[in-house]
Amino acid sequence: MDAVPGVILAGGRASRMGGGDKGERLIAGASLMERVIARLGPQCDGLAINANGEPARLAAYGLPLLPDTIADHPGPLAGVLAGLDWAAHRGADAVVTVAVDTPFVPRDLVARLQASAGDEGLALAASPGADGVIRRHPTCGLWPVALREDLRAAVQGGLGKIVLWTDRYGAGRAEWPSTPVDPFFNVNTPEDLAEAERLAAILGKI
């Protein structure tokens, strides 16, 4: 399968974490950003970070910084769009996105998303919750460059819920088990951060 670039979505305002850069929060001595880079980087043909604000604060990661191209923080779809524009500039056919608050993202994410893509080339990750119900994780997905203008029009029109757009184009679904750790566990609160510390000990490595 063709190699694709990856974008780490870090454009949120981390309000439930008290603000600041969520990706700089530490789990067992490594930041959320470092953990996502370590897992996603080897799967991709280059990485970039979608984030807003002063770019110098993230310069240490040595990755391109992609701010939202649509004002007023319209949500993660704006980050996906920024990633698609970057991928298009690189001549890529698609881009993979991962949220910075998913520190255990699978090491086979890209290959399995590609294998599960729908007719339009879209795919989202999914895993079972504690109740056993399979839930999609729409910030972890494969996005075709061919649909970027459709997405731009949708975001500019006020669409904020990712699955409303991906369902329109028949996104495929790649599923992972949630044991021993849900690979899409996401860190939104200080309590989640403490739980991630516990889960990191189970996994034993970044």
TrEMBL record:
It holds the Pfam family NTP_transf_3. Keywords: Cytoplasm, GTP-binding, Magnesium, Metal-binding, Molybdenum cofactor biosynthesis, Nucleotide-binding, Nucleotidyltransferase, Plasmid, Transferase. Its cofactor is Mg(2+). Gene3D superfamilies: Spore Coat Polysaccharide Biosynthesis Protein SpsA, Chain A. Its EC number is 2.7.7.77. The keyword Protein biosynthesis does not apply. Residues 6-162 form the MobA-like NTP transferase domain. InterPro entries: MobA-like_NTP_Trfase, Molybde_CF_guanTrfase, Nucleotide-diphossugar_trans. Mg(2+) binds at D101. The keyword Cytoplasm applies. It catalyses: Mo-molybdopterin + GTP + H(+) = Mo-molybdopterin guanine dinucleotide + diphosphate. It is found in: Cytoplasm. GTP binds at L9, A10, G11, K22, N50, D68, D101. GO terms for molecular function: molybdenum cofactor guanylyltransferase activity. It comes from the Bacteria. The N-terminal domain determines nucleotide recognition and specific binding, while the C-terminal domain determines the specific binding to the target protein. HAMAP family: MobA. Monomer. Belongs to the MobA family. Transfers a GMP moiety from GTP to Mo-molybdopterin (Mo-MPT) cofactor (Moco or molybdenum cofactor) to form Mo-molybdopterin guanine dinucleotide (Mo-MGD) cofactor. This is Molybdenum cofactor guanylyltransferase. It comes from Paracoccus albicereus.
